[in-house]
Amino acid sequence: MCGRFTLKAGKKVKLKGFSLADFKDLIPRYNIAPSQDILTVVQRDSSRETMLMQWGLIPFWSKEPKGIMNARVETIDEKASFAESFQRRRCLILADGFYEWERHGKIAQPYYFQLANEEPFTFAGVWDQWRSGERLITTCAIITTTANKLLAKIHTRMPVILGSELHDLWLDETARTPDLKELLVPFDANEMKSHAVGYDVNDVKVDHAGVLRPVTPNIGVNMSLF
To answer: Which of 57, 63, 96, 132 has the maximal Cβ count within 10 Å?
Structure first.
């Protein structure tokens, strides 16, 4: 799963068709949590644009505005909550790192994962719009797959990271389901790195660079060895 992530260097993002360097209101984020607005890229009539969406997909047919933060690749084209969005409303979700927790009983040690070069990247996402009267909410979910070798030390799942060479196909409005599902695989562990962080990340109100400070893990494995 993916329950927190970062976009601390958003203006370094380079995506085909546009740049985020001119976004004046783009501030560093160190602890992005579900129900908060996140930066995404969608494609409409072969033109790409950025959109702020609430993290936690609410299906358009839902009676209540209850969001689902992650969609599993194994069932994304079958589960009612995501199937139509997977076919018609796919997006890229901008990030440069994410957190996962190693759990032993009541203890959960958080770790921060990023690319080895620390560059920004994109998650594979799906989105939808929920309406009730005059209220309209645009929401999205991050797609998850099985963990790669690095993450498997602490968790069974990881978010799908899409390299820039895969963006065109993922956003292609005419893409076929088999071709799309072939993209939703674990990212190469050799191109990632991780370190343990403190428990401040557990508090959604804490959003500053200090949450990324490396610490000695209290439990489990030392990720610096891998």
So the answer is: 57
